[in-house]
Write a structure and sequence with these properties.
single chain; alpha+beta
């Protein structure tokens, strides 16, 4: 039987998958593409509606990022069902990625610089309950 409770796992798994080392479109990890785009454009935010696939305009939306987002949005209903929940329970679902392009630090012993990011995924269910998972970390682009 489908459960609302497992939506907690959905938000965690979605965020961890998007920001993971297995998300490698093109010549860098997706987070590397996002950080590099932030450095180049001074953009800071990317917001995605996971139900409709609508993405707010953002200078961070370079082709590999768009591709990864499209793949993850397509996977979202499958993830909900695989976690023993139901898409009809999801009133809204959103992922927000923020990068601070003005904060950079060198990784000790390397020439790589990295910037802080957050990846937040949240679902509001059909009863109004909010489920959220946030990853806060640092990332560096490998293509620099």
């Amino acid at each position: 039987m489908a459960s609302h409770k497992t939506l907690k796992s959905v938000v965690r798994n979605f965020a961890e998958s998007f920001a993971s080392l297995s998300n490698h479109p093109g010549d860098d990890y997706v987070m590397g593409h996002l950080v590099y785009a932030a450095w180049e454009t001074n953009g800071t935010t990317c917001r995605v509606d996971l139900l409709t696939g609508t993405i707010d305009p953002s200078p961070l939306l370079v082709p590999p990022v768009r591709e990864s987002i499209a793949n993850h949005v397509q996977w979202f209903p499958t993830l909900v069902h695989s976690e023993n929940s139901d898409l009809s329970f999801v009133a809204s679902a959103e992922m927000v990625i923020t990068i601070d392009p003005n904060t950079r630090r060198f990784i000790t012993g390397t020439l790589f610089r990295e910037s802080p990011f957050t990846c937040t995924v949240q679902i509001t269910d059909d009863r109004g309950k909010l489920y959220a998972h946030r990853i806060s970390d640092w990332w560096y682009p490998e293509k620099v």
